[in-house]
Structure formats: C-alpha cells, structure tokens
C-alpha cells in the first residue's frame, strides 16, 4: 500500500509550483492514499492531489485558504494508526516532547507533522515521527535553506518502508528507511 | 435528412439511382460476375483458353453499366479485378511451363465491346511483357493510347486505374535500355506513360462535373471527391520512380502536371491536385521549383481555396528546414521568407474578397516559418506581426476584432505560435507582438494571456530583470487591471467567481517566477515594479497578488543579510523592504477577513527577528502589535480568534529579538488574551501553550546582546495553576477529565525540564486526582476515547518510572 506524505507547498504565496522532477514522478494510479500536512494553499492544489488518488486527507495549515480543514486527523493504513497535524498549533514548534504528547493524545503509531519545512524521520519509544518537509522547498524564516522533499510510505501489514525524495542542489536523491511496529 | 432522401429518390428513380434500386442492381451484377467467373475457372481447368476468354469477356461486360453509383461501381470493380487475377495467373503459369499461346493479344482485339476488350488487352499485355513475348515499350504505349476508346468518365477512370495498377512493376526505371532484351524502354518512357494516363484521367474526372442536371451538382461533386484518389495515384506512382531526380522533376514532370492542372480550370481538381503534389513529392523538389509552383498558384481559378494550398506548402518546408534539429537544410540562395512573403502579398492583393481569417491564417504560417527557420533573427517574426496589424488597421483603424469570429480565432492561434516556439524572454523581443494582441476583444485577449502564463509556468521560465517584467506586464494587462471592454462587472470579481480566482491565482504563481538570483537590488526593483502594477488592479486582485510580493520581500531580506559584507547599505535596504510590506499588508486589512494579513504580519516579525538588522526589534514589535490588533478585531469569531491566538503564541516563542520590556508586554498580553477567550476549554488549552512563553521563549539581554531563555518558573507555575482553576469550572465532566489529563501532561513536560517546584509529590497528587475524576465519567464511546488517552499517559508514566528521575512515582493500574 503506497501512501504519499507531503505538505507546506505554499502555492502560490511562496512558490509557483512543484518542481518538475517531482511532478514527473507523481502520476495517477500508483498511490493509494495521500496524507497532507497542510499549507497547500489553494483549491487548485487540492484538486491536483485528487487527480493522483481519490483518498486524500488534508489538515489545516496556517496559510490554507479553506477554513474547513480539520486540525487533526487519524487514518488507519495496514496495522498502523497514523496521526496527521500541521504543527503550527504545537508550541514550541517542532519540539520533540510536545510532539510526543500529541502522539499520546491521538494514540497513534505514526505521527506526521509539518510546518518546519525540514524533513525528519525518527523513532522514539517505539513510535515513529515523520515530517515530510516542504514539497516545493518554500521559504521559511526559521530554516535558511529549504530543500524540496516529500515522503512515500510503503505499508505492508505491520511493516513500513519509508522513501524520502529530495532535491539537493538540483540533484534528485532517494533514501530508504524501515520501521516495524512493536 | 429524410426529406432530402425522398426528393432524391423521386428525382433519380428514372435513372435507377434510388438507394433500393442501387442495392439490387449491384447484387444482380455481382451475381452475374460470380457466375461467369465460375464458368471461366472451370474451362480454364480444362485448358480451354479461348473458352476462358469468352467467359471472361462476359464477366467484364458487367462493367459496361451506366446505372451504378461510383461507390457501387467500385465494389463491382474490386470483385471483377479479383476474378480477372485468376486468368492472369493461369496464363502466366502456362508461359512458365512453355505452353503459352502466342496469339492471344491479337485475338482479344476482336472482342465485341470495348470495355471487356481493353481489360483483356491490359491483362494479357501484362502477362506477355513479363513472359518476354512482346516488347515492353511498345505494348505500354499501345495500352495507354487505346484506353482513349472509353470516354465515359466513370468507366474510363476505373479502366485507367486498372491499367496503372497492372503495370506497376513493369514501368522501366532505368537510364538506359536494358542490353539483353530490346525495346524495354527507359525512365523517359515511363514518364510519358504516366503523364499521359494522368492527363486523360484528369480530363475524365473533370468531365464528371458537367454530366447530368444542375440540381444534382452537389451530389456529383461529392461523388467526384470520392474518386479523387484514382487520379492522385498517378502522381504517387511518379514519385515512386527512382530515376526521377530534381532536374527531371523540374523540366519534365512538374510542367506537364501543372499544364493539366491549370488548363482544366476545375476547382475541385485544382485544389486536390495542388495539395497532392505538395504531399507526394519530396521537399527538396519543392524547394527547387518554388517559383514554378507559385506561378501556377496564381493562375488557379478564383474559387480555389488557395489558403490551404499555400499553408500546406509553407508548413512542409518549415518542417523540412528544421528536421533533425538543424536549420541547414535550405540552401543559402533560397530565401523562403522573402519568397512566401511576396507570394502572400500578391495573393491577398489579387483576391479582394478573401476573408480576413484566411489572411491571418496565411500570416500565421509565415510567422511559423519565420520563428522556426530564422530562429535568432527576430526581425522576421516582427515583420509578420507588424504586417498583420497593418492589415487590420487598413480595414478599420483602432477597432477591435469582434469576439468569437473566425478572424478572432485565427488571431488567437497566431499569437500562440511564438509562445509555443520560444520561451517568453525571446517572445518579449518581438516588440510587435502586443500590436496584434491589442486587436483582440476581451475574451480572446484573456485566452491568450492565460495561455502565456500557463506556458511560462509549464516551462518553468525565470524572468530575471525588472525591464522584462515590465514588458511582460504590458502583454498581461488584461488580467491585471480592469478592462474597459470586459463583460465582467466589478461585482463579479470576487472570490465566489471560480474563474476569477483561478485567473488571479495564476498571476500569483507567475509572480514567483520573477527572480534575479544573483542580484538582490534587481530583485528589489522587480518588487517595486510589481507593486506599482498590481496596486491598480483593485482590492479583489490585490488579495491574490500582494501576498507573494510580501513573502518574496521577506526572503529578500535574508539575501541582503547574506551579502552584508559586500553591501554596507544592507540594513537600510531591509528596512525599506519591511516598510513596503507594512504598507502592503495594511491594504489587505480592508478585506473582509483578517486571517491573511495577521499571518503575514507574524511572518514579518519572524523574519525581522532572524535578520537581526539594526532596527529589527522596532520592526518586529510593530508587526507583532499590528497582528495583535487584528486579532482583537476578530472578537466576533471564536474559532478564528482561538486559531489566531495560538499562532501569536507560537510565533512569539520563536521571536528572539525583543528586549525584556517589549517581551514582557507581549507575554502578558497574550496570556491575558488566553483567559479572555470565550470557551473555557480554549482558555485552558491556550494557557497551557502560554507556559512556554515564560520558559523556552527567548528575549534579548541588552548588556550581552545575546538572546536567552526566559525561564521564569514562577510565572510558568502561575499559568499552570490558573489553567487548573479554570478547568475546575468546566461543567461537562468528560471534557473536564480530558483537560485534567492534558494538564498532567504539561506538568510532566516541565518536570522533565527540571522546573523547580514541580516534584514527584506534585505529580503523584495529580495522578491521584485524575484517577478519581476518571471514575466519574461514563463508558460511552466518546468517553472511552478519553479513558484511552488517560491510559496512554499512565502507560508513559509507567515506562518513565524506571528512570532514576522518576523514583517514587506512584503509578499503578
């Protein structure tokens, strides 16, 4: 089961669109679910995501123009409960302890947040934390050099393989990580 | 449709051409053919050649009919030719085994009727030539002449077509005679053969135009078109001959074809054949005969659609010239642009009733040629655009082309050509492009502008200078400011109009492609130009176009900071940028919701803080307090207010440039604001967020000029106590318990942070309280969820209790 995880695109407030290297990769029919951390920011981008697959989950970022997105969502894929939240609501932003608190509150195996525009993926107390970064490498005051990145999760029952796609100095790279539910 | 058919039926019933009648006639004819063919095959099996020929003649007699429509005649013809093939095979076989009869060619000349006679002659002639019974050259000449005997257009066309197909492999294609066999003929004989066949077929074809009543004209013309491939096959055959070269094409082939085409004065034939010539012969030939071809074009009859012929030729040669990516296929001495430019001018002059869309289509083809064949010489493309504008100015000066007309459509197509061929930076060098764009009405201008933007975005073209941005804006004005000829009333320019939103979002996206990557001053210049342009678009447009300017301005301050060693004015420049943003955001506050300006102000405060320029604190404070003011104005909307306050708190926690005085003011304001939120649960949760403002948030120590964390334990505890107190005042027990859990978690957080006054004892008492409260709530689904959350906290604590820090923690199930 392929799950696309991305967010913080900031189209059109900070960038004009997804890098074409990413657009080429993301073709319809290959992905089953999309989990989006928010800050798209317009309906146009929502529609684009919906062309890739029908099952799209979006949570509210601070710049999304749709006020009806929820703040938090839990989605079950395989044997994983996955929590989704943009992250600007968690103070301090990006703080690991606070994120752990959120993970406990949502009772999820995997917590996905964004807002920092910095890719992260780590395990803590047998739980997995993912930040797909900004898919467009959008500007962020607190992060001087943003690299465009997104994540693809391959979930089979209780095992998760994570593929990180990044554009570093205009070079396209892919990394792989594995995680098993306890 | 049915009425037409009924009328047709009544008219043509006399001629036996009604639909039902036709079907019956064809069926009868086919049956006869099969019967005769069967008989023929049977006697041939018995080696009776003469008998076979008789049956064949009978079968061929069916082709003498005048009653069938061309479509049906064709069906009959196919079957007959198929059966005739058996005879051919038989005879060939006989010769291969040395049993061939040598006099058949003579014998069949006595066949009664001319149609069967000629079909048999062709068939046998074919066999005899292959068997070397008769000299090729003479027989071929004979056959092509003898076919003149059939002057009925339909029968003649099919007969000559059969001839051409039959001798396909026999036409000599050599420079010299074959030494072994005599009189085989050379390429010149083949050319004579085919050109004569072609001429005769064309004459027959043209004659069809005048057969019958004038009221059947439309049907006849349709039928003629169905048969055109029969005539065209001659040209195809010519193109297949290997010994035809440019020289022979120019001196023999083309003149003869042209002579026929021009003299026949029939527009259906002329239109088809000119097109056929272009498609069938190689481009190299066309290049060398341009003058002849174009001269013939001028002599075509007035009703011929010369537009398509010329465009066909221009497009072909354009494609040829850029084949394999090179532009060298055209020899130096052939100046395609000049030739066609002149030609088009002549055509337009001579055909005074040519509709404007046709003229534009011709200009488009010429433009396409200019842009592809003269890639770096913009003056050609410019000339075409200028001429196009002149044409319309001559018709009616300063008048727009009416929307939806064919001329408007052709102009749109024309304007898309440079966008497709070049990237936008080169298109901007065509300074007459906008002259043509201005001809169009609002709807078409809109279409072209959208097309331009989409093309830039798809190609990811960067526009790097303010000057180019300015030029681009001249083209895109239709989308940027209100147009006097727009059907859109101002009231329709709102976010409820999806088209308007789509269009403005596109402009916003485009803005992000205005980048001067190595020149911050140029970038600043671009920002100013854009602000000056967008401010004339009205508030509804600014809603979309201002935010990207503001965000790009913030990003620019970081670029200035990066080059502070080289640019001593960097701080002043940053100051100017922030001032500009302040102005722009202020304009956006006039919109009906404050969410966006509030967030933009907060982004500005963050940027100022990170930049750390000389006025950073002043700027950040100004922006932050503006955001706060906007927050207060959201008093009517509890949800928006709560979300905005959370954002204010999160931002403040990250802004490090405030000295204690300012920081303290802001900390207090936000904490008090939290207690003033309408809903209790919001109050509690927001207060819990505020605790971080007194802990990890950073303020500037003025003596050391370094940022340090606030670490005010008293205030943190005060917040926690206040939050606890507020929680006790919540009536809904489930919500209350949930909040107690969140409180506990926050206490644990600060315990981990080693906040003094939070010790194990305190934690134990909180745990106990929570356990008690938990027992009070019910066991419905929602409460199950809350119980589960609490369990998760306890699980976590159980885990932590292993650590030394948590010694003495009382956590049991």
TrEMBL record, chain A:
It comes from the Eukaryota. One of its GO terms (cellular component) is cytoplasmic vesicle. InterPro entries: Calcineurin-like_PHP_lpxH (IPR024654), Metallo-depent_PP-like (IPR029052), Phosphodiesterase_MJ0936/Vps29 (IPR000979), Vps29 (IPR028661). One of its GO terms (biological process) is retrograde transport, endosome to Golgi. Keywords: Protein transport, Transport. It holds the Pfam family Metallophos_2. Residues 1-157 form the Calcineurin-like phosphoesterase domain. Component of the commander complex that is essential for endosomal recycling of transmembrane cargos; the commander complex is composed of the Csubcomplex and the retriever subcomplex. Component of the retriever complex, which is a heterotrimeric complex related to retromer cargo-selective complex (CSC) and essential for retromer-independent retrieval and recycling of numerous cargos. Component of the retromer cargo-selective complex (CSC). Belongs to the VPS29 family. This is Vacuolar protein sorting-associated protein 29.
From TrEMBL, chain B:
Plays a role in vesicular protein sorting. One of its GO terms (cellular component) is late endosome. The lineage of its organism: Eukaryota, Metazoa, Spiralia, Gnathifera, Rotifera. InterPro entries: Vps35, Vps35_C. GO terms for biological process: intracellular protein transport; retrograde transport, endosome to Golgi. The keyword Disulfide bond does not apply. Its main location: membrane. Keywords: Membrane, Protein transport, Transport. This is Vacuolar protein sorting-associated protein 35. It comes from Rotaria sordida. It holds the Pfam family Vps35. It is found in: Membrane.
């Amino acid at each position: 089961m392929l799950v696309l995880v991305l967010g913080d695109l900031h189209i059109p407030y900070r960038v004009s669109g997804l890098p074409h290297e990413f657009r080429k990769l993301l073709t319809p029919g290959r992905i089953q679910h999309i989990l989006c951390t928010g800050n798209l920011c317009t309906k146009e981008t929502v529609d684009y995501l919906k062309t890739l697959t029908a099952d799209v989950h979006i949570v509210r970022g601070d710049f999304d123009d749709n006020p009806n997105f929820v703040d938090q969502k839990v989605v079950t894929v395989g044997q994983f409960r996955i929590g989704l939240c943009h992250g600007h609501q968690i103070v301090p932003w990006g703080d690991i302890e606070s994120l752990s608190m959120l993970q406990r509150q949502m009772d999820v195996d995997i917590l996905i947040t964004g807002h920092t525009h910095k890719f992260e993926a780590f395990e803590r107390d047998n739980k997995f934390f993912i930040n797909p970064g900004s898919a467009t490498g959008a500007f962020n005051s607190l992060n001087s050099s943003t690299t465009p990145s997104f994540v693809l999760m391959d979930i089979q029952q209780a095992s998760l393989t994570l593929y990180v796609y990044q554009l570093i100095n205009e070079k396209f790279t892919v990394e792989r990580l594995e995680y098993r539910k306890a | 449709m049915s009425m037409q058919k009924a009328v047709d039926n009544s008219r043509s019933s006399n001629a036996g051409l009604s639909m039902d009648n036709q079907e019956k006639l064809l069926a009868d004819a086919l049956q006869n053919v099969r019967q005769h063919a069967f008989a023929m095959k049977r006697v041939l099996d018995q080696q009776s050649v003469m008998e076979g020929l008789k049956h064949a003649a009978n079968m061929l007699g069916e082709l003498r009919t005048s009653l069938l429509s061309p479509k049906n005649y064709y069906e009959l013809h196919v079957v007959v030719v198929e059966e005739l093939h058996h005879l051919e095979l038989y005879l060939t076989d006989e010769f291969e085994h040395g049993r061939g009869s040598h006099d058949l060619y003579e014998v069949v000349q006595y066949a009664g009727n001319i149609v069967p006679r000629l079909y048999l002659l062709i068939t046998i002639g074919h066999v005899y030539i292959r068997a070397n019974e008769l000299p090729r050259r003479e027989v071929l000449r004979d056959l092509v002449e003898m076919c003149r005997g059939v002057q009925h257009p339909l029968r003649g066309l099919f007969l000559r077509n059969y001839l051409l197909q039959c001798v396909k492999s026999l036409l000599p294609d050599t420079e010299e005679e074959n030494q072994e066999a005599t009189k085989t003929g050379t390429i010149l004989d083949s050319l004579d053969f085919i050109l004569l066949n072609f001429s005769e077929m064309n004459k027959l074809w043209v004659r069809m135009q005048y057969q019958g009543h004038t009221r059947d004209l439309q049907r006849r013309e349709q039928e003629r078109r169905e048969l055109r491939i029969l005539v065209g096959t001659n040209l195809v055959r010519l193109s297949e001959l290997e010994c035809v070269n440019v020289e022979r094409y120019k001196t023999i082939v083309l003149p003869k074809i042209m002579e026929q085409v021009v003299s026949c004065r029939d527009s259906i034939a002329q239109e088809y054949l000119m097109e056929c010539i272009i498609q069938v012969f190689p481009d190299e030939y066309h290049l060398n005969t341009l003058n002849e071809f174009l001269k013939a074009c001028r002599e075509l009859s007035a009703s011929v659609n010369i537009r398509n012929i010329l465009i066909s030729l221009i497009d072909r040669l354009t494609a040829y010239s850029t084949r394999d990516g090179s532009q060298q296929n055209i020899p130096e001495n052939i100046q395609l642009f000049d030739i066609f430019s002149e030609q088009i001018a002549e055509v337009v002059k001579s055909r005074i009733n040519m509709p404007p869309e046709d003229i534009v289509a011709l200009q488009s083809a010429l433009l396409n040629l200019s842009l592809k064949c003269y890639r770096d010489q913009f003056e050609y493309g410019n000339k075409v655009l200028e001429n196009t504008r002149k044409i319309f100015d001559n018709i009616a000066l300063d008048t727009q082309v009416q929307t939806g007309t064919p001329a408007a459509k052709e102009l749109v197509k024309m304007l898309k050509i440079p966008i497709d061929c070049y990237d936008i930076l080169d298109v901007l060098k065509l300074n007459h492009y906008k002259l043509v764009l201005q001809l169009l009405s609002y709807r078409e201008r809109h279409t072209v502008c959208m097309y331009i933007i989409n093309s830039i975005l798809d190609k990811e073209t960067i526009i790097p200078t303010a000057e180019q941005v300015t030029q681009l804006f001249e083209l895109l004005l239709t989308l940027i400011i209100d147009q006097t000829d727009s059907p859109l009333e101002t009231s329709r320019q709102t976010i409820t109009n999806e088209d308007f939103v789509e269009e403005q979002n596109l402009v916003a996206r485009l803005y992000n492609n205005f980048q001067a990557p190595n020149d911050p001053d140029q970038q600043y210049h671009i920002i100013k130009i854009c602000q000056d342009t967008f401010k004339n678009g009205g508030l509804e447009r600014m809603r979309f176009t201002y935010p990207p300017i503001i965000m790009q301005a913030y990003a620019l301050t970081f670029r200035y900071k990066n080059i502070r060693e080289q640019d001593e004015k960097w701080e002043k420049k940053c100051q100017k940028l922030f001032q500009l943003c302040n102005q722009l955001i202020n304009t956006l506050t006039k919109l009906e919701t404050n969410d966006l300006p509030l967030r933009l102000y907060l982004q500005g405060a963050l940027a100022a803080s990170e930049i750390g320029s000389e006025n950073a604190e002043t700027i950040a404070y100004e922006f932050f307090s503006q955001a706060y003011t906007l927050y207060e104005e959201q008093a009517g909307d509890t949800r928006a207010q709560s979300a905005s306050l959370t954002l204010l708190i999160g931002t403040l926690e990250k802004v490090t440039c405030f000295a204690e005085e300012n920081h303290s003011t802001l900390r207090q304001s936000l904490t008090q604001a939290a207690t003033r939120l309408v809903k209790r649960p919001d109050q509690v949760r927001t207060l819990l967020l505020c605790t971080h403002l007194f802990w990890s948030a950073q303020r500037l120590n003025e003596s050391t000029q370094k940022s340090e964390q606030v670490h005010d334990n008293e205030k943190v505890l005060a917040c926690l106590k206040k939050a606890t107190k507020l929680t006790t005042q919540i009536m809904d027990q489930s919500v209350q318990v949930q909040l107690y859990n969140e409180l506990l978690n926050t206490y644990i957080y600060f315990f981990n942070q080693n906040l003094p006054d939070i010790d194990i004892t305190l934690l134990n008492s909180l745990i106990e309280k929570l356990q008690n409260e938990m027992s009070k709530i019910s066991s419905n689904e929602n409460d199950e969820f809350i119980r589960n959350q609490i369990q998760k906290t306890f699980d976590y604590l159980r885990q932590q209790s292993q650590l030394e820090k948590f010694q003495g923690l009382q956590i049991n199930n």
